[in-house]
Amino acid sequence: MGATTSMASKQLSVTPGESIEAKVLVRNNGTLVDQFSLDIVGDAREWVEVVPRVMNLMPGQDGEATVRFAPPRDASVLAGPMPFGVRVLSREEPGGSSVEEGAIDVAPFTDLQVELTPKSSKCRSKAVHEVVVDNSGNYPIGVDVVTDDPEEQLRLTLDHSSLMVQPGTSAFLKLRAKPHDRFLRGNERRHPFVVTAVSGDLPPITANGTVVQQQLLPKWLLPAAVALVALAAVLTVLWFTLVRPTVQTAAREAGKAAAEEVQADMQEQVDLAERKAVAAEEQSAAAQKQAAEAATAAGAAGANNGGARGATTTQDGVNIASGSAVDFRITTGAAADPNPEAFENFGVPNGVIPADKTLVITDIIMQNPQGDAGRLRILRGNDVLLEVGLANFRDLDYHFLEPWTFGPGAPLKIQVSCQAPGAPAPADGDCTPAVSFSGRLSGPSAG
How far is CA 106 from CA 14, 47, 110, 199, 289, in A? Predict the structure, then answer.
């Protein structure tokens, strides 16, 4: 029979940053004492809390839980209706679980900002600013951007003036400011301007900026020109009086030294070639002698060694490099249990492994097609070799360089802890992961 669930109010409304509560009634329609787990499904689950999350009910007994809706004042929580569900899971009869559905209407809120980057710019003929409109509210806002120059000294141009800003996003506009008048020399001139964002009935939002206009001729131009002329005159005098005679003398000495160095290098190369030739002859003689000694030693070793044989064996004397191939699959059907330490055991199908053989596993493939939640273990006797979370995979395979061995005293088995069956859940409400094994059946190695 499982549980029945009812909610007094299924149409609720809440303002982001505030909270509202609703009551949920749970009845145990079964004939056994049952434990029920409550949680929230849907996009609202991040900011919805149910208390208590677990309740134990006698047959026919009712239990009440409180559902608290507390959306944050954030653009990620969009305005408008948002469906949700209160899910009640029965421990004793998973197939009798139920979901009570409803909708919460999230009220809109506005958080619009306008920024100007940079706030102040310097230019001679044209300045460029960027207007940033930030919508930190939870619904789209249409915005008109207008500019104003109180002193009427600038020509202000926007890429476009109307835009739609989505919640949690920013819109960027390029603003070009060009002074009407320009001057060659003189003091800087400051031109203030204002950017305003207007949206329906909302109060206008403004950002102030300034263009600092400079003279067209750089201030450093005249001093730099005088300095360059003086420097050119000084360099000309130095060249004809000091540098040119010194360069000519140095060139003659450098040519003589280079010729002597080339002659010395050539003699050194000749000597080095002669030494390498002598060394090569000595190495060749030594190599011939070592080859003869190695051939003699190899003949002696072949006469004294009648051959060797070996096998790849374990410490128990099991040959893991030979034997007959084997592959099989262990399927499971573990009942859902909220206790994460409750495991059910599953073994190798009967008749797969003879009593006198050792199972050598080289490859495993784990399957969780339903998306069950819980844990799966692979054991050798009572020793856990591998433990994985079922929620971490749908298909997972391993291939071993050093294979696993399972002898008669330490059989292969699987344990499963089922927290929640996947969707669609089986009729019996069990978790049904499976593991496929492949390897060999080997006996003790020959003496």
Answer: 5, 12, 13, 21, 94
DSSP symbols for 111-163: -EEEEEESSEEEESS-EEEEEEEEE-SSS-EEEEEEEE-TTS-EEEEES-SEE
Torsion angle in degrees (nearest 10) through CA of 267, 271, 276, 282: 170
> CATH for 3-106?
2.60.40.10
- Asked if CATH classification 2.60.120.220 holds for the domain at 324-442, the reply, yes or no, is yes
Q: What is the mean pLDDT of residues 279-302?
A: 65
Q: What is the dihedral of CA 440, 441, 442, 443, to 10 degrees?
A: 180
* Segments making up each domain of the chain, as ranges: 3-106, 112-213, 324-442
CB 177 within 8 A of CB 156: yes
Considering the entire predicted model, what is its pTM?
0.45
User: What CATH code would you report for 112-213?
Assistant: 2.60.40.2310
133 with 112: CB under 8 angstroms?
yes
Are 335 and 430 in contact by the 8 Å Cβ rule? The answer is yes
Q: For the segment 185-220, what is each residue's pLDDT rounded down to a tens digit?
A: 888 899 999 999 999 888 999 999 999 988 887 766
